[in-house]
Design brief:
This protein is a component of the acetyl coenzyme A carboxylase complex; first, biotin carboxylase catalyzes the carboxylation of the carrier protein and then the transcarboxylase transfers the carboxyl group to form malonyl-CoA. 8% of the residues lie in helices and 35% in strands. The protein is mainly β. The chain folds into 2 domains: 43 residues, no CATH class; 81 residues, Beta Barrel (OB fold (Dihydrolipoamide Acetyltransferase, E2P)), CATH 2.40.50.100. A hairpin with a 3-residue loop joins strand 1 and strand 2.
């Protein structure tokens, strides 16, 4: 396996939701871990070969904020009845399709199943994230243009 192929594999794993990958053949053994005490990538071969130079896989850090850019609804309902819309993938969260267009969803907006609430860019592809529930958006938990993890909460919705 060439160094470029190994780097492509590591980049692919970094973009996926996998935490650990082991690949073993008769000539080659690759083990990549994303999480733990420190990100690691190791390569061993039955033939003596120079170690390839590549950067270890680093986990994408989730950025959240305590003070949203927009004011929250003043009579915020108890969090026990709120539904969370979570990220279905790793990528970069965008509230609108471009900087010039309005946000897909704002605090106080009513949403229905199938309504686009945000876009997540992953590997140069922009994926529209649609609501699967009906309700009113109470809180936006992620800043625009920040990285998000798989299953990271994005919106809090009060069901109607």
């Amino acid at each position: 396996m060439e160094t470029k192929e190994i780097q492509k594999l590591i980049d692919f794993i970094a973009q996926s939701g996998l935490d650990e990958v082991n690949i073993e053949t008769t000539d080659l053994k690759i083990k990549v871990k994303r999480y733990g005490s420190a990100p690691t990538a190791s390569l061993s071969s039955s033939q003596a070969a120079p170690a390839p130079s590549y950067a270890p896989v680093t986990p994408t850090t989730a950025v959240t904020h305590s003070a949203p850019t927009e004011p929250t609804v003043s009579s915020e309902p108890a969090s026990s009845n709120l539904i969370t819309i979570k990220s279905p993938m790793i990528g970069t969260f965008y509230r609108a399709s471009s900087p010039e267009t309005p946000a897909f969803a704002n605090i106080g907006d009513e949403i229905k199943p199938g309504k686009v609430v945000c876009v997540i860019e992953a590997m140069k592809l922009f994926n529209e994230i649609e609501s699967e529930i009906s309700g009113k958006i109470v809180k936006i938990l992620v800043e625009n243009a920040t990285p998000v993890e798989f299953d990271q909460p994005l919106f809090l919705v009060e069901p109607v």
